[in-house]
Amino acid sequence: MLRYIVERISDGAFLELELPIVVTTAGKKLCGAGAFSGEVLPIAEAYRHAGSKTLIDPRATYIHEEADGIIRNTWLVTRSSFEGARWKIEGQGFSSYFSGYPYEGEYHGVKVDPIAVARHVVEYAQAKTGANIGVKVTGASSVRRGTDSDLKADAAKKIMDAKKASWDEYAKPRKALEAKVATASKPFDAAILVLNRDRRVLKDAYAAAIAAKAPAATIAAKKKLVDTKSTEIKTKREAKEALIKSDQEKIAGLKSTEAPLEESYEAAKADYDAARQKADTDKGAWKILWWDTPYCLDAMVDAITEAGYEWVEWSGWNSDRTRVLKEIRCLPRIGEKRTDLAFIEGANITEQVSVTDDVSKYANSVTVLGAGEGKSALRAEVGLADGRRRTPVVVAAKHLTKQSLVEALARSELAARSASLKISAIRIDARHPNAPRGTFGVGDTILVDIDAGWLGRQRLWARISEIEWNNLAVADLVLEVAA
């Protein structure tokens, strides 16, 4: 028996145990949110709620699909609309709730499991008033990320700043004297500047007279002018030195007493520079910071990807069947290779299958550019020697701020782009014994046997990345190249 159950999210109350609805799309997606759509049948009991929020309220209502007592999927209602007397409902998997949901906190993780980071993000998003949708992240990995190097760098900077502040405070008398000396010296320096400029003119005239072989008396007169100007400059300098000598001696004495403070500051600065360099190298703690304007879903997915894991939405009854549990399950790999099942054209594949070998999307060398500018941008390059001429592609992913995520995307892009033959989608009859409904799911890798026309019969292993049920028997499968 198949039925659709309506749950009010705020209190978990079941508003309708058998919603009279004709479902046109009931989807499940690997590492994503599946789609849902349907039309409520014009039955009086259901239609008494039409146009109100008492039964269906977008972002406040779940629809659960139950088959033979087992919850198979859950969707968050995202749209309720009317076209005349037709009441249409649309939804997305519950993970979609976190899409576009801003992370407004500050998170620093040291030696954390990335799955725990994903769990934190989901818990954080639901901790706000009116935000709890009853979703938990499950799973754990042995991966650990984040160091305390940036925390140590921050501590080192505080020490350095304190040392500098102590030195600056102690140096105030010396700096006051230096300011006094600078003020006293200013008119002398200005006068000496003018005298030097005048002497330069006189020196040029003296040199020109020599070059022109002027009479000795003329040359001597010009030399005397230069010497007189030099004497004026010397006198002015001596007057300046006499005026500031006492203060300069005091300044020198004060500087000698500051030496220990200066040395202490320089040592603290060296410690900070070393700590900062280490933090810049290993990136320090795993950080999610509100001023970087992250979204919760992106932060969750980045964390799961960092662990090398995949995720899938799961929902099911609790032990006493009073509540439907909702989980984002994180595992090293979702699904398995199913050698006992097959999708065969002419049997359970009901429509002609398109097989492509499209070089416009092909690449056997992939470079991914992550966050950063110019040569400092994060970068990863992977390639495959497959007998074809090198065909490179560059993928921009400026949202990725961790090198490991850039490398993971590069590997994923290479796998997707380097396959010579691709089957991207098939429509299947799930009543056929080759692969009955309920025996396969997203993440499973299953043999696809098709007639590829001029290519002949092709048998390819493909992985199910998305399932959309059109009705109880017919499903559209989105496939990806099996790794």
Q: Could you list some keywords that capture this structure?
A:
single chain, 483 residues, alpha+beta, PUA domain-like fold, 12-stranded mixed beta sheet, 7 helices, 29% strand
Structural class designation: alpha+beta
Query: DSSP strand (E) fraction?
Result: 25-35%
Mean pLDDT across all amino acids? 91
How many H/I helices? Answer: 7
By DSSP, the count of extended strands is 22
Report on this model:
- It is a single chain.
- This protein is of the alpha+beta class and 483 residues long.
- Helix content is 36%, strand content 29%.
- Strands 1, 2, 3, 4, 5, 6, 7, 13, 19, 20, 21 and 22 form a twelve-stranded mixed β-sheet that branches. Strands 9-12-11 form a three-stranded mixed β-sheet.
- β3 and β4 (35-40) form a beta hairpin.
- The radius of gyration is 38 Å and the shape is elongated.
Question: What's the structural blueprint in terms of helices and strands?
Answer:
Layout: E1 2-8, E2 14-16, E3 21-29, E4 35-40, H1 44-47, E5 61-67, E6 70-83, E7 86-93, E8 106-109, H2 114-127, E9 135-138, H3 149-170, H4 172-211, H5 216-282, E10 286-289, H6 296-306, E11 310-317, E12 324-331, E13 337-344, E14 355-356, E15 365-369, E16 379-383, E17 392-396, H7 403-418, E18 422-423, E19 425-429, E20 445-451, E21 457-469, E22 474-481
Parallel strand pairs: 9-12, 13-20, 15-17
Antiparallel strand pairs: 1-2, 1-5, 3-4, 3-21, 4-7, 5-6, 6-7, 8-10, 11-12, 14-18, 15-16, 19-22, 20-21, 21-22
Helix pairs in contact: 2-6, 3-5, 4-5
